[in-house]
Input
Amino acid sequence: MSEPATDSSRAPFVRARSLEVRFAARAAIRARGRGEVLAVDGVSLAIERGETLGLVGESGCGKTTLARVLLGLLRPASGKVEIDGRDIFAMSRRELRRWRRDLQIVQQDPFGSLDPRWRIGAIVGEGLAIHRIGTSGERRQRVVETLQRCGLPAAALDRFPHEFSGGQRQRIGIARALALRPEFIIWDEPVSALDVSVQSQIIQLLLELKEEYGLTYLLIAHDLSIVERVCDRVAVMYLGRIVEAAGAERVFRRPVHPYTQALLASIPAGRPGRRRRGAAAGDVPSPLAPPPGCRYHPRCPLAMEVCRREPPALLDRSGHRVACHLAAGSPH
Amino acid sequence: MSETGRPTPALNDSPLLRIRGLKTHFTGAEGTARAVDGLDLDVEEGKTVGLVGESGCGKTVAALSVLRLVPPPGRIAGGEVLFAGRDLLKLDEKAMRAVRGRRISMIFQEPMTSLNPVLTVGSQIAEALRLHLGLSRREARARSIDLLRRVRMPAPEMRAGEYPHQLSGGMRQRVMIAMALACGPSLLIADEPTTALDVTVQAQIIDLLLDLQEELGLSILFITHDLRLLAEIAGEIAVMYAARIVERGSAAEIIERPLHPYTRGLLACLPGRRGEGSEARDEQWAPSLAGAVPDPLRLPSGCRFHPRCPLAEERCRREDPPLRLSSSGRAVACHLAELETRDERAEEDER
Amino acid sequence: MRILDLWPGIADYRRGRRARGVVLGALFLVLIAVAVWRHAVIGETLRTALARLVPGERPPLGVRDIDRIVSSLLVSGSIAAILASTAISAVRAGRRAPARRERESRWVLFGRQLLRNRLAATGLALLAALYLAAIICPLLTPYDPVSQGDMLAERLLPPSIAHPLGTDSFSRDVLSRILYGSRISLLVGLLAVGIAVSIGVIYGAVAGYCGGRVDGVMMRALDMLMAFPSIVIIITVMHLWRSYSIWLIIAVIGLLSWMGVARLVRGQFLVLKQKEFYQAAVALGAGPLRLIFLHLLPNASTPIIVSATLRVGNTILLEAGLSYLGLGVQSPTPSWGNIIYDNRNLIFSHWWIPFAAGLAIVLTVVAYNLLGDGLRDALDPRMQE
Output
């Protein structure tokens, strides 16, 4: 597949420029590490209209924090988020709230993401009520349509979340995001809490909705096989930094960063008796005390002296961005 | 490994674990939920058997039934669980305690909740050793560090003195495995041991389990919903649906020639790898399993899969298909799978 | 329709609305029993009240007279209202099939769940009986709780038909005093907890929603307030005001017991703010009022309501304790606490007097605790079907 044609005159739909997010560590933790956690450390990325970007990484790498910044829910310590060329953190509160209609999120946990005291109709219609869209009859109509589009019966309207299975709840969460007819949806691990059979149904719905409404997606996942299926481009994050980013085809066919290679090797191939070995050793280090130099070096089988000292820059080679000293040295 | 020096099992006819017609029911105000209802399963000595199914199909209850740890109001309503020739369901509670942990161990999905947060991990492993093997405090401590080393815990002497919250998820699961192996069991039941872990750590834990199996000659009953994973690690796969086994066979056969429509559905749900056969990615990766697992309170009539089965016939709605065995050791519970079993038999004959 | 269906509640019961049927039927039974038993008093009271509507000579009304009129009106009015509603629904049921409502309100579901829980239903019934008795006590006893009778002939009588719990050392009917005393105790419980919950919810909600520095400052202030020993403050206030008015007691108890509620609400809010559904609402663009009143408070309501019911019991005990110390309601106005206090010397000779007042306190506190536990289950929508 080809990179989306970039018209140099037009900015990408979503653009993040060198974002940094810091969290103050609690006193008990602070005693051992530094005073703060750099959850997102100089991340830049761009998403074109109509594109699906996959954001991959293990727990604690900063994926979800990045998503919250892109939604305008969390103010970064430095850096900018531009949507359609406008800096969302330079907007007034009111403007930002208006923008929230266009940016939606589908969360991971189908059990925690729905208010247990609300009926489905109210949950899905909440965005419409907040932004005072239409009369209450019109809203109800829109809610029913959206629910049905997401594969739920109109009778779901008056029921409570606990009456539904995990997959159905995830559909309710999708309907809530979709009811406002947004342009951009962030999917935060949308299927990782679901059964395989349900996973494929939800992914199918995700693809159909994109087609139907011309949506732009950011898909956060740790399951690479799903990312591979769905995404146009992939960015791999490790401890707050992007270590590799390129078209999905390239990342999956010719991964350059040793971490990406390890991630790929960890996916079970599903072929009898063909277990690949040699995935990454060790655990993800604590973000409170990230290793110096390249953050992956303690787990990297190919680590060199320079990896321990200097953090590698994210270098762009014909659209394939990699942050690795090994890749920088050799012509790719 | 075992201190009793088990006799070598006779060929084929007495596996280490043989479950026959196991029934575990939960009786509540709304009726009886048949969580496990007529389960047949064998685990051979030194082999890995994978038990696969969607959540709510009864996998975990089946595993807990083997150890007789079903929480109330659950109750084992029938069947037998033969372990090394003895029916565990007939043992008294004291004899059963000697089996648990010592001969059969279990590891769970969420290691954090299985570990005591106020004790160091080393003392928790030592506790199990002293309880079951009657070791002295010092011996137990040395053994526990040894075990941590065996599960490839980095810096085991130091980690033994740490508390569960100080360890990462992968390390906690290593501690759980060390505890499970403490008394040299012959069967390890692993209930989704990697689901809660990060992908790279998942792979490490699986590698560890496979290595330990080789070193110690363990039998493993591996419970998961991930058929891809089982394909790689299990010798035999049993597919469970609605409280019962619907298909059983070697991993290669199940993956390459699934007979039951449910197994086919599960396989079709798996995303294929790019560059490994599949061309375009949007190309018909349609979900083949509509609907959801039935409520164990209201299991469907006839074949329990018929409401979701694309091939269901009138007969499937009425008659419950028995688990039929083929000559090659393959088993399937489906009225319509007969033809394929015959083909298979014909192929065998041709050879 | 059978003749039995004319009794209020039975038709409801048959139609499947069992809880409603039982409650209505039982209430009607009790009211009819009281009306039949005291028909003479009620009749006379209502006649006098009616006579006052006619222009002419109006003798001044005492507090006791008003009390009697209100009680009589309440009993007869309730009977009439229940009969009327039964008649209306009977006529409606005859006209067309009852329309089944598809969507039941959360409160209907909640009520059904509450009544399904036996302990909670017991607590609720007990409380209903206690409050009903407190309201209509002029009809339940012919004696005045305050004025003293024949000091020689009627002093310290043992229990009898005329005085089921005997009389005290001032020749007053003990049952009457306990019945009238329930008004004080039950009122103090309800109002003081109402004040405490109102202040506590507001304070806790502000601290929990704002979080950060605001929360830190507010919580430290709370810690300081909690460090004051409340009994000392109560005694000081009573002395400063030189008053033992029931309203002052209610206000002081209320103002001294909201801190626990505030802590509870703040803690709930902090937990709820971490929930994904809350963050989803923020992502949808919801403003602070919507977040507090539609997402946070409803989800925090279960522990608030439960702790409030449990607190009512404690407050009744506190009032009784104050009265026992001579700091609460003053004799001759009866309260459960001062009945025990006044008769403490009779604990061996006339043990039933303090015992009956103590039993009333225990019953009320237990009833509130049962209700509190039942509410905890019933308010969880996951428990409803």
Q: What stands out?
A: Chain B has a mean pLDDT of 81.
